[in-house]
Every structure is written in structure tokens, then in C-alpha cells.
Amino acid sequence: MTSRITRITAAIATCALSLGAFAAGVGTAAASSATAAGADAPSPRAAVVDARAAAVDRCSYQVVRSDDSRYVYSVSGVVGGSTREFPVQKEDFVRISDTWFKVAQVDVCAGGQSQAPATLRVTGKLDRPEHYDPSVPRTIRSGALRPASSSVIPKAPRLTSVDRVDAATVRVNWEAAQGSPDQVIVLERKPFYSSELGLWHPYTFRWNAPDGATSMDRKLQRDPGVPAGIRSHSYWMRVVKDGFVSDLRAERPTTVEP
Q1: Radius of gyration of the chain (CA)
Q2: Which of 92, 98, 207, 243 has the fewest C-beta atoms under 10 angstroms from its C-beta?
Q3: Which residues of 222-254 are buried (b: 16+ CB within 10 A; e: fewer)?
Q4: Quick one: pLDDT at residue 47?
């Protein structure tokens, strides 16, 4: 199983790196063509991270940011006049208003720190810069982020049960969402077959629930080729409101066997 996960990770990383290098190469070629034609080469556009932040509770802060997979990101903050980098508690991708963002929750109390940060900042450092044209910024940053209060963090409804409908279907049930969130999301982790990799691996699907719904039927993956170790299916809830996401640490998947 470990070797399969390693193959998946390596393939995805290689694909992302190849796309990034290709994009950088195209940009270089375009600039060279413009110069050859007598035009000034365009200066690289300043790269910034679009981000917002809010306190989840006294120690956990949520940062919602844009994502460029070429960069490795960190979150730091000004505490007591000095800057500290905060460890990530949990992170995931979330679709907000038809755009994908990365949501990270960081621990501002790590190391015994008790003072709340005055501001936060996201920094991205270019991963493997030797593979990119010099015009690609090596570092990108957000502005100084003043965290909003914990009242802006929505609460996800409790998932109450996952019931069998028939041999190949389950019904996911949850409590009615409170506070009129912009979107209620059912997350489903189950086996997925990758034709490119030629193997099954766990994959998380995200399903938008209709307004007012409190249940959703999902099909089980029962292909006999799925390895025994990854056959289980898991379900949990998430909500989005005003650009922020429910507490990622509070998500408790309910697992069923196909």
C-alpha cells in the first residue's frame, strides 16, 4: 500500500512540476519573440497571495488563500513585536464562489505562546526554483492580515447517520444547517481508479447539497478489483459562508464498508 501511495504522490508531483516548467518556458519564449520583434520584453507581473484570516478559537486561526502549486506556503504572525511561523493543524482545498482556495488552520499557541497575533501573513517560496525561468518570482506574499473574530467562522451541521438504501447505495443524513451558510458540502472519501496510474487509490469527492436538503444518496464503489485495504467509504460535512469555512478540526468522518 505504501508503494502505491508513493507512486501516486510522485506522479502528481511530477505532473505539477512539468506543467509549471512548461508554463515558465512558454513565458520565456513569448518574451524572447517580443524582443526580437523590436518590442520591450514585458516585466513579470508582481505575484501576490490573495488571503483572508479569522480566529476559530483562542489558539486556532483560519487562513483562506489563493493557491499556486509551484510554491510552498507558510503562515507567520506578529506576536509581541516579533514574527513567528505557526504550525499547520489541518488544511484542505475548498471551492468558494466557483474558485478553488486553500484553507489552512494554524496553531498560534504553539510553544506555550498565549498572546494573540496582531497580524498574519502568508508567504510562498518557489519549490525547486532551478526548474523555472528567472522571471518567475521566487517568493510571493500576502499583505498583512488582521484576523476577523471567531463569529465569522460558520458551523457545519452534524452528520447523524449513513443508512443502507440497497446493496450499492447509502443515504447520508445530517441535521439542518444553521446560520444560512452559502454552501453545505458533503465530503465523500472512497476508492477511485486512476487510468493514468493504473491503480485504485482513496480520493475525496465534494458534493454541494441543495438548499434545505438534509440527506443525499451516494453510490458505493464495489468493483472487485479494489484492494482490501482501501475499500471503506467515509462521509462528513462542511459549510462555507462569507469566504470562511467551518472548523476543519471538528470534522469527524463516518465510515462504512461497501
Answers
A1: 22
A2: 98
A3: eeeebeeebbbbbbbbbbbbeebbbbbeeeebb
A4: 65
Burial label, 54 (beta-carbon count in 10 A; 0-12, 13-18, 19+)? buried
pLDDT value at position 80?
Answer: 82
Q: How many CB atoms lie within 10 A of CB 191?
A: 21
DSSP-assigned letter for residue 185: E
pLDDT, tens digit (0-9, with 9 covering 90-100), for 154-204: 999 999 999 999 999 999 999 999 999 999 999 999 999 999 999 999 999
8 A C-beta contact, residue 119 and residue 142:
no
**Residues in contact with 195: Cβ distance below 8 Å, sequence separation at least 6, in sequence order:** none
Instruction: Please report, as a single letter, which amino acid is at residue 217.
Output: D
The list of the chain residues with pLDDT below 50 reads 1-46
Q: Positive or negative, the Cα torsion across 7, 10, 13, 19?
A: negative
CA angle at 85 for the pair 133 and 47, rounded to the nearest 5°: 30
pLDDT score for 155: 98
Whole-prediction pTM value? Answer: 0.80
Rounded to whole angstroms, how far apart are CA atoms 206 and 120? Answer: 29
The candidate with the shortest Cα–Cα distance to 124, out of 137, 108, 113, 112, is 137
Position 80: which residue type? G
